[in-house]
Amino acid sequence: MTPNDFVAGLRMAVVEENTGMYRQLFTSTSVAKASDPYWKRALTLFNGLSAEQQEVFFEVVRQVAADTTSNVLGVIDGVNALDGVDEQFVLTCESGSKLSGDLQSLFLVEEERASRK
What are the φ and ψ backbone dihedral angles of 26, each rounded to 5 degrees? Predict the structure, then answer.
């Protein structure tokens, strides 16, 4: 696996698929069928939005997923620091190939490409 392959797969799984999952859950779950109090409140909020506002809501969900993924990759790459951690992280494959180093940059390039589509 190459760093590009890893980033593309991660972006698809974490950003695209999770955003799609949230879209499906929010648009197909009724408040009456939800049992979790948090989920009921979230559905009530979502259902109170206009169709245009619901689309903005999903844009925000997607952006949060992308920003979070980027930040975690930045920690793995050593670009973003964790308080109290002085060690460097290295992400490798089972084959021993090093993946970390430019993951955040590669991810942001993939995100930019996706936003042009």
Answer: -70, -35
How far apart CA 13 and CA 8 sit, in angstroms, is 9
User: Residues 88, 92, 93, CA angle at the centre, nearest 5°?
Assistant: 170
Q: Is the dihedral of CA 18, 24, 26, 29 positive or negative?
A: negative
pTM here is 0.89
- Reported as a single tens digit per residue, the pLDDT across 52-107 is 999 999 999 999 999 999 999 999 999 998 999 988 899 999 998 999 999 999 99
Residue 113 is encoded by which pair of tokens? Answer: 């490409």
Tokens for 11, please give them: 């972006």
- β-pair partners for 37: none
Closest to 114 (Cα-Cα) out of 106, 56, 38: 106
